User: What shape does this take?
Amino acid sequence: MAAITYSGGVTWDDTLTGDLILKCWKSPATMDSADTVAVPTVTGRTAFAINCYDMTTGDVVTTTGLGTSGTPFIIDAAGGTTDHTYLLIYGYY
Assistant: This one.
C-alpha cells in the first residue's frame, strides 16, 4: 500500500444546489490496488466517497476511509492490480 499524492492526479469539481461540493479525481496511471489518497481539507466540511472506478478494467472498486491525511481514502480493487488509473468520485457536505 502506497500513498498517492492528490496533486499527482487530475480533478474536476462543481458546487451543487444546497452547497454540496462534488469532485472527481483521476489518479495517475501508476496507482495500485490498496493505495491511498488524502483529498484536500475544506474548512467546515466532511469528505465522503461516492464511488470509484478502475478506468483500466471498467470495474467498480471499493473505497473506504474518510479522505483525510489521518484516514485517507483506500482504493480497494480486487485482484491486486498494479499500474491502473482510477476515477474517484467524492464530495463534501
Observations:
- Residues 63 and 75 are 5 Å apart (CA to CA).
- Residues 6-92 form one domain.
- The mean pLDDT is 84.
